[in-house]
Amino acid sequence: MVVLGSNMNFCAKLLSIACLSVAGASLAHAADFQLQPGQWEITEGMSLSANATPSQTRSICITANENLVSENWFIDLAKPNAGCASDLTSVNASQLQFSLNCPSRNGDIEGPVNVNVSASEFTISSDLALQLGGHPLPMHRELTARNVGQCR
Length: 152
Fold this sequence. Notes:
Elements: H1 2-28, E1 32-34, E2 38-48, E3 51-62, E4 68-70, H2 71-78, E5 85-91, E6 95-102, E7 109-117, E8 121-132, E9 135-149
Antiparallel strand pairs: 1-4, 2-3, 2-9, 5-6, 6-7, 7-8, 8-9
């Protein structure tokens, strides 16, 4: 009877590990977000410590063939440069969270990023820190986007 009990205990542990592995793998599973096709206005602002830079606005056209986007689409928008690595930590139908790590000769940039998404707008908010000689310099980036109608 002891052998059976220990085998059952072993099986329960193995099943728990398998369930945790599947739950962890679901974070890496690509999620699709459906955006309204049309012209999108994107405004981006940044502040380093207490100094804010002027906001910049640009437009993009999202066609009906391009309106289903993955979390990687938002991650790429959030990256300050192409050399950044990301680690997805949470994703659901209207939000995703990830961390960024951007190596640089002037000091690494790292921190959490939050994305809130609906069909007609999204916001990417990041509270990063620029590491200068071991001293973190706070950097906040905010990107807001909204559908403004038909593509021009």
